[in-house]
Amino acid sequence: MSEAEAKQIERMKQVLEAQKAAFKAERHRPIDKRKADLDRVANLCRDNAEAIAEAISRDFGNRAREESIIAEIAFVIQDVAHTKKHLAKWMKTRRVGVPMTLMPGKAEIRREPKGVVGIVAPWNYPFQLAIAPLVAALGAGCRALIKPSEYTPATAELMKSLLAEAFEEDHVAVITGGPAVGEAFTGLKFDHLFYTGSTQVGRLVAKAAAENLVPVTLELGGKSPAIVTPDYPRDSAAKSIAWGKFFNAGQTCVAPDYVMTPKGSETAMGEAIVSAVQHQFPDASTDDAYTAIVSDRHYERLNSMIEEARKGGATVLQPEHDSQAAQAARKIPPTVLINPPADAKVMSEEIFGPVLPVIGYSELDSAIDYVTDRDHPLALYVYSKDKVQAQRVLDATQSGGAGVNINLLHLSVPDLPFGGIGASGQGAYHGKDGFDTFTHDRSVFSTGKWHPSRLLAPPYGKLFERISKKQLG
Ligand code: NAD
Q: What domains does the chain contain, in order, with CATH numbers?
C-alpha cells in the first residue's frame, strides 16, 4: 500500500465519524434541504460538463465526448429532476390499517434515512456510477462517502474537488485509492454499502459488509445474451446490437455479451453487425466517437481473448481499420467472433469490451437452455416480431433486467428498478428504488389508553377464551 493510500484510509475513518456525528445532529433532513442538495449535484454537472467529459477521456485515452455527455452527465441531471419531482411522495409517511383487535390504534410507516452510506464505483462510467447512487442517497436524506476506481484517476480527482466545493466534508466526500483502500472502505461500519463492480470483488464486498452486518447493494456484471428469433429482420437486429455493444467500446455492464442467432445464419448476422458498425464508425481506429480501452491490462486481456478464440477455430470479423493507429490509440476495432469454441474465455467470462461472439442455436428452447444453464445475467435481450416468442423467452429465463427488440435502454427508464439477480447482483436503484435502497421503513404503532388486546393479558379468563377462539377461527 502506498503512503497516499494509507493517508486516505486514515482520512476516511475520520470523515466517517464526522458524517455520523452530522447525521446524528440532523436525522431527518427536511425536503427543501434535500432538494437543494440535489440541485447542487445537477449544477455541478451542468457547469462542468465539458471538464468532466474531458477528464473521462483522459482516463480512457479517448472516450467519445458524446457518450460522456449522454451516459454520464445528462443521465445524472435527468435523475435529479426525476428525484426532485417525486421526492415529496416518496418521503411521505404511509398509514396502514390495523386489525380489529388492535383498534383504535394507529399504524404508520415512516420513511427514514438510513444514515451514512458508502458508495464504491467502477471505472467504466466513472462519473455516473458514483453520482447516480449519490443522488439516491441525498434524496433519501443520507450522507455519503464515495470510493471511485483507481483506473480513472483524473475523473476521481475532479469529482473530489467538485463535490468538495459543493458539499461540506461531513455531508459528501470522496476517498481515492485502489483495492487496498477499497478493502478498508468496505470494512467500515456504514449504514448501507452500495457497490458497483465485478462479481469477483462483489463477493469480497459482501463478506466485508457481513462482518459489520452492513446492508449491501451489489451491482455486478455477467454475460448478457441477445437472442434473435428467425422472424426478426436481421439488419434491424444487427444495427441495434451493434449500437449497444460498441457504445463505450463494449465497456458497459449491460452491453450484449454474445448473440444467439438461428443456426446457419451466424456469418450473415456477423457480417450485418460489422456493416452496421462500419456505418457508425467509418474507421474506429482514428474516429474520436469510438472509445479506447481503459488500460493496457484490459487491452491485453481482450486481445488475448480474441487470439484464443481465433486459435480455437472462430472466424474473426472486423471492419476495415488501421491496425497500427488502433494499437497506438489502445483501441480494439469492433470485433465479431463467429462460433468461438464453448470453452474459450469469450464464452465463459464477461467480455466487457468490443468483442462479440455470435453463436447458432437450433431451436429456441436450446437457446433458452443455454442461458438458463448459466448464472443469471444482468440483462437479457430478445429480438422477435412475435410477441408470443418474446414472452416465451422472458418467461423461461431470469435476468436482472430485459429488453425486447432493444438493448441497454431499460436502464434509462427512471421508474424501472436497475439491478441484478444471483451472480449479477442484489438490490436495485434508479428512481424510487434508489430512494428505497437508502431508506429505512420504520414501523410505528401507537394506540390510546385502551385497546381490546389488553384483554388478552393475564389474568386470563373467559373473555380471553372468547377472543382467542375467534382469532383461531
Ligand atoms: P472491480 O470490481 O475491479 O472494481 C470496482 C471497485 O471496487 C473499484 O473502485 C475498486 O477499487 C474496488 N475494489 C477492488 N478490489 C476491492 C476489494 N478487494 N475490496 C473492496 N473494493 C475493491 O470492477 P471494475 O473492473 O471497475 O468494473 C467492471 C465490472 O463492473 C464488470 O464486471 C461490470 O459488469 C461491472 N459493472 C456493473 C454495473 C452494474 O450497474 N451492475 C455497472 C458497471 C460495471
A: 3-220+424-441 (3.40.605.10), 225-416 (3.40.309.10)
